[in-house]
Amino acid sequence: MELSGSATTCLSQPVHYVICKLGFEKKDTYDINNILSGNCEVRWQAVTEHVCYLESDQSVDYIKSIRSLGPVCESVNMHFKSLAKEQFLTQYASWFHWTNCTEIFLEVFDVLQCTQTTEGALGLMKLTSCLERALGDVYLLKGSDCPFLLRDLLASEQLAVVFGQAVMNVLRIFIGSPYGLNLRNVLWHGFASPHEIPTKYCAMLLFLTAGLGQLLQTYLLRTKCILVHRPYVIFISLEELVVFPDLNNETLSIAEELVRLSSFVLKTMLPFWIAALTAFKQNRYADSVILLLPQLEVGLRLLFTTANKCPNRLLTAEVKFMFKINYDLMLAKHLDNEEVNQLPLVLEEPAMDFLWDFLNHQEGPRIRDRLSHGEINLEAFPREVANQIVAFAITLLCRFSDEDMFSLKEHMVIKPLISCANSYQSRFHPISQLRKQVLECMKSIHLWSELPAVPEEQVQTIKGLEENGEASTLTLMISEITTQLQQYMPQNCCSLDDPINSVLTKRLLIELCDRRICTLYSPRPVLEIVVILRKISSQCHQVSEQVIASAEVKYMQWMNKTLRSRQRHNYLRMLNSIKFLSPVLQLILILITLELVSVHSVCKKNPFDYQQYLKFLKSVLQYTENLVTYTSPEKNKWDETIELTNKVLVKIKKVSDRKLMLIHLAT
Question: Could you tell me which InterPro entries the record lists for this protein (predicted)?
Fold first, then answer.
């Protein structure tokens, strides 16, 4: 695909005018003392006087307000530039404590003294992220369920009560409204090049944040409220996020060459790419990812507009359509006009899976959302996460580059990255999560064989279970169902002599879960089925954990002779029952996995009684939920457990006999 990276701006003419020109039309020199008292307190009334309102409905007139505030912003910028760092710390540092990330705001002051335009944009992105998080904490003083979108947060009654509506209107001129400067979205969505965001707006937001701290202090003293900061999101299982090998300086140096030559990069955005790679080299991992994510969005938007033949949409649209081409739309199956999105065909499934995993899936890291909304501690951002984003970006630089870059793409440090990218499979789609659940559950059930056992000579015969024939019935049904399913299993993972063997089951589940399943754009019926299968798997795992815990506790009590007669009898019933529970739970896990590998093909091609099938799955779910209850330490209802198990096996056998499972319908 031939891309054109020659665009000189990604801002449409109206947006470019608002950001780059409107605030410079008034040439007045504004006296900083009008809005700043002698003890460095913001005079909010003087600031809010510059907000203009429409006569028709008294809503904010953003155009007039930006024009009026232009000289004020310039005055604030010059004021900050006149201060030494020590003066700034003395006069302002304490007013940023309410944000819970004072250091970030002090960094922004340093940025104002810097001539590098990329640093200014980076500082503004970090400032808006941290400010949004802090405002969310303030919101929770008065309300619950903090709004996800900044524009909704700034328009909330809760913040107006704390800071005043006029103050919130000032903020909305700079961030949070598509009718204003909208600095946060313009930067985080990659529409602004380094030189297109005036430094004075960054200075003004720094100034306003300090002023908000002053207002908040007054409010907290008056109301006796205590501001509580929400904990940051922490990436717990970093090993799950590792896709690519660790990047070294040689790889990063080649990446810098690729950036300058790849058609994936808009030339006007080149400084951002270089700054991102430099930040990674300097171990500034949050900075690297913050700089890079918007540029990935720009590059993907370039691919998107080229593939879908809508080059005009590379620019920000008019206000009511602002930022419609973002990650959500670019990764969707259909365009907003219902035509098929061509970008997935260009990127191909592995790259789409990676983007969905790291950006969109609810159980994934959702890196862009969490960074841009201030949910991650920027000072503790893990290298492992940054490594994946930078490495993936390098693979895109290679893929969308000219043939004369062959030597770079074939370099020994680049080829492993390409290989990892080409073989990527989703890890955070619900289907992938189900596979992980199944294997974790089987790992737990496998431990049952290692549970401590009561010495045989101490065990008395348990009356009831053997006499009513339920044990042999259960064994027979498990064997029959397993035999019916063996034709759908790999040959090396099953045995006619021992249908349910935990070692073979584990091997079977691993092999089935390793099969590639298309997760991209799973239809609704597939997702509904997967939801129920995940619930079943989760309940099975809970049963297993309860059995392990109870068996260990009861064994110790047995050996210490602290169990009463009835408790001893119940313990022996439990031991006998779990002999049958283990193969039943394994059978259910096998069914889940076999159904999973068939669900897509059946739901896409074969007409089948979907509602009837859901009813069957829900009955199995009901069984596992009851099993959780009966095997809990509080209940210990082992006779009822066997009765339940018998009933569910009858249902499974009936459905299997009639070949109504997905595994049957798929063949």
Answer: DUF4209, ERMARD
